[in-house]
Specification:
The protein is an all-alpha fold. The chain has nine helices and no strands. It is globular and about 55 Å long.
Length: 212
């Protein structure tokens, strides 16, 4: 498997779709970064709110170090799937991921919740590099891992889809005891991915991004 954006036998129109989808994905990441920093600047004293599952599930903070490896696993599966030999659905996948993160960026700034472990702390492996992410709702970890599960074909890549589903399940499991996200963040992440996937799968505009 070679990580090339397109095959040389693709038409110019197909190549343009790919590059536009890549630029859209990059745009979504920039917007997310800017709004995350806006949240910290505008709402530095964000409130930590009650959560029913926090009351029911014991706190196991070291679970946070499983979250990033799980999301890296989901990303690896997505890359393997997207950069298949024909690369025919790259525009669909980049647009899907970009849309999930753009929607997340817009939602997280509406209700800036405090991080359950404190607004001045990071999470998991991100502590090592000192990277701070200030948005809570919806969960980007859950949204991405669930999206990976949704976009993988159950007809042609059944085993890969099962693995993606298992990674998503454990991502959800570790976030509550590690206090990485509120339970509403997890529900929101699932909803955002389902919404984006449904729109791109069942609407005429979305189907134009797919080759099958």
């Amino acid at each position: 498997m070679q990580f090339q954006l397109y095959n040389h036998n693709m038409t110019l129109k197909d190549k343009m779709k790919i590059w536009l989808s890549v630029l859209y994905f990059i745009f979504s990441q920039i917007i997310g970064f800017l709004l995350s920093n806006f949240i910290q600047a505008a709402y530095p004293e964000r409130l930590i709110v009650p959560d029913l599952l926090f009351d029911l599930v014991p706190e196991i903070l070291w679970f946070e170090y499983f979250s990033e490896p799980l999301i890296f696993g989901s990303i690896g599966i997505l890359l393997y799937y997207v950069f298949s030999p024909d690369r025919k659905n790259i525009p669909f996948h980049f647009t899907a991921v970009g849309s999930v993160y753009l929607l997340r960026a817009l939602l997280m700034v509406l209700t800036p919740l405090g991080r359950p472990t404190g607004n001045d702390t990071s999470f998991g492996i991100l502590k090592v590099v000192g990277f701070m992410q200030h948005g809570m709702f919806p969960s980007g970890h859950v949204a991405l891992s669930f999206l990976v599960f949704l976009v993988i074909s159950k007809k042609t890549h059944k085993s890969l889809r099962i693995i993606a589903g298992v990674l998503c399940f454990f991502q959800i499991i570790v976030l509550i005891p590690s206090r990485g996200h509120y339970s509403i963040d997890i529900a929101g992440g699932l909803f955002v991915s389902w919404t984006v996937w449904s729109i791109l799968t069942y609407t005429k505009a979305g189907r134009r991004l797919r080759a099958d």
